[in-house]
User: What shape does this take?
Amino acid sequence: MGLDKLNQLYRAVILDHASNPHHHYVVPDATNEKTLHNTTCGDTINLSLRLDSNGTITDIGFTGEGCTISQASASMLTDVMLGKSRDEGLAIAKIFSDLAIGKEHSAKEVKLLGDAQVLTEIMEFPARIKCATLAWWAFQRALSDEPREEN
Ligand code: ZN
Assistant: This one.
């Protein structure tokens, strides 16, 4: 496990999100949702959010279970995405996904990730990358699927 090798401060931020996850609920009247599993580790993330008519994320939450990193990552994601537009959110999720596959981004772009910046250290531990990216993939998939009410 990579956590004990992480910078102390980063580790504290991750453990804080995992033990007191933010927005840990199913969004009532969600317009978009997605559940993804990481079978390698046994993580599940259900992400739900509500887009208003302007395409702004007015509520976002997650439920699920799994390792510290998967749950902390989902908590960090909800903090970052709340209040963003759909397009802004997708652009930020792409930065995170890109970092996971070894693509570089500017310091300014990485800063957009908020607390999730600390997870970029996880990318040095290949076995944990799926744990870190699960919520971000769920977010991207939730927004690329058609909203429920239009089905
Ligand atoms: Zn995991």
